[in-house]
Specification:
about 425 residues; alpha+beta; Immunoglobulin-like; Jelly Rolls; 8-stranded antiparallel sheet; about 15% helix; globular
Length: about 425
């Protein structure tokens, strides 16, 4: 009996040591967390990442206000892994309802030409990106904002999807159903649809009971996928939504599907669509639905670096992904992307290829970026930004908090003095 107790004690100890060893540990940071600057993170158990930089990243900041998003070299760029296949309708660079910390986003207008598709009348406003190589693991993060448009008729909005380039019926897509007031609440029917291929499994996964996205407000989506073997329930889908920007509530896992079939044939989910469509409307009815997207990140590994706005992973209300350029087991070099997290205190998190991350964030300081200020001023002079955009950007950079309706009216002489010193330092 005694030797069994000893064996059990040793076994428990080994398991506990293994779990502790597996979690990434951050021990230090070299460099300043300013947008665009290089930072090296030291630590242990970071694991490996064969291709350090993400497969795809687009923050829409290189575009020109009002032009089609296809002019963005990041979105249309062809690399060894991405094809140049893209479809874009009614999508432009916009500074409307801008996400704090961002000058431009993609604006998807759902009042395009009325088209017929299997008896459904639809307005398109989407862009598509195809990834040529199979992705067994997928991680996607982005910000999205939408309004549901008209309440004159029952209609459906499809916000985004990941699909198969070879089999259009294989998808995981975010669908919002909206109803005119006589028929029901306009927030009803938020769900993700999942289809595993033509004649495959079709399932709807509602999440209204967990979280219903607010109309006309930014929220962040994090998507984690393990693609299954053909017809075998060995895949998984996890999707987190943040509450609306500015909320103090943490992320909510709205979809948690372990041990599922994601494909019923040899094809893979390999194409991302943003914006997509507003459907189920009569041709004479104006849709008025608009969608915005920002800070889109995609990779074929779960390994990533993020800045969070809370000292623990579970308490973060949103996290901004960083852009790695080198990844070793004890050292990662990233280009800082502070996104919508104000300058000041923040916390660093590293996830390995299995998605294991440090539970407690490593404290860092996000510093104001004079280079970013210069970029905003130059773009204003070039005619790509309005004075209001510049005022908002200056307030954000000086105060480190989201700008009010009239930002310049609330800046003091000391604030403006600080701004002058930033430019002198640069």
């Amino acid at each position: 009996m005694f030797k069994y107790v000893i064996f059990a004690t040793i076994l428990i100890s080994v398991v506990c040591i293994g779990e502790s060893y597996g979690q990434p540990e951050i021990s230090g940071v070299t460099g300043a967390f300013r947008d665009g600057e290089s930072v090296t993170i030291s630590g242990a158990s970071f694991g490996t990442k064969a291709k350090p930089d993400p497969l795809f990243w687009c923050d829409f900041e290189k575009g020109k206000l009002g032009e089609e998003v296809t002019t963005d070299r990041n979105w249309t760029e062809t690399t060894d892994n991405w094809t140049s296949a893209i479809d874009q309708r009614n999508v432009t660079y916009s500074n409307e309802n801008a996400l704090p910390g961002s000058s431009l986003s993609s604006r998807h207008e759902m009042d395009g030409d009325c088209t017929q598709w299997e008896g459904w009348l639809a307005r398109n406003g989407y862009m598509k990106k195809y990834f040529a190589e199979p992705m067994q693991k997928v991680y996607i993060s982005f910000w999205v904002r939408y309004n549901h448009g008209t309440e004159a008729e029952t209609h459906q909005i499809k916000l985004w999807r990941i699909e198969s380039h070879e089999d259009e019926w294989m998808t995981i897509k975010n669908i919002h159903y909206f109803y005119n007031p006589p028929l029901g609440d306009v927030t009803d029917g938020h769900n993700y649809g999942r289809q595993t291929g033509f004649d495959g499994i079709v399932t709807s996964h509602g999440y209204n009971s967990l979280l219903s996205p607010e109309n006309d407000a930014w929220y962040q989506v994090n998507f984690k996928l393990l693609q299954s073997s053909v017809g075998v329930a060995d895949g998984s889908v996890e999707i987190w939504h943040s509450h609306s920007y500015g909320s103090s509530e943490p992320f909510v896992k709205v979809i948690n599907l372990p041990d599922i079939v994601t494909r019923s044939n040899s094809n893979y989910l390999n194409t991302v669509v943003l914006g997509e469509v507003c459907t189920n409307l009569s041709c004479g009815v104006t849709c008025d639905a608009v969608q915005y997207f920002d800070s889109f990140y995609l990779d074929n590994t779960w390994a990533r670096v993020e800045i969070g706005n809370a000292p623990t992973w579970d308490a973060c209300t949103y996290r901004e992904v960083q852009l790695p350029s080198e990844w070793l087991g004890s050292s990662i070099t990233v280009t800082a992307n502070t996104g919508c997290i104000p300058h000041g205190s923040a916390y660093l998190y590293v996830s390995d290829a299995e998605g294991v991350h440090n539970t407690n964030g490593y404290p860092i300081t996000i510093e104001s970026s004079p280079g970013w200020l210069y970029n905003v001023a130059n773009r204003w002079q070039a005619g790509t930004l309005t004075r209001s955009d510049v005022d908002r950007a200056l307030y954000w950079n000086i105060k480190g908090i989201p700008p009010p309706e009239n930002p310049m009216a609330e800046l003091t002489e000391d604030d403006l003095g600080d701004l002058i010193m930033i430019f002198k330092t640069e």
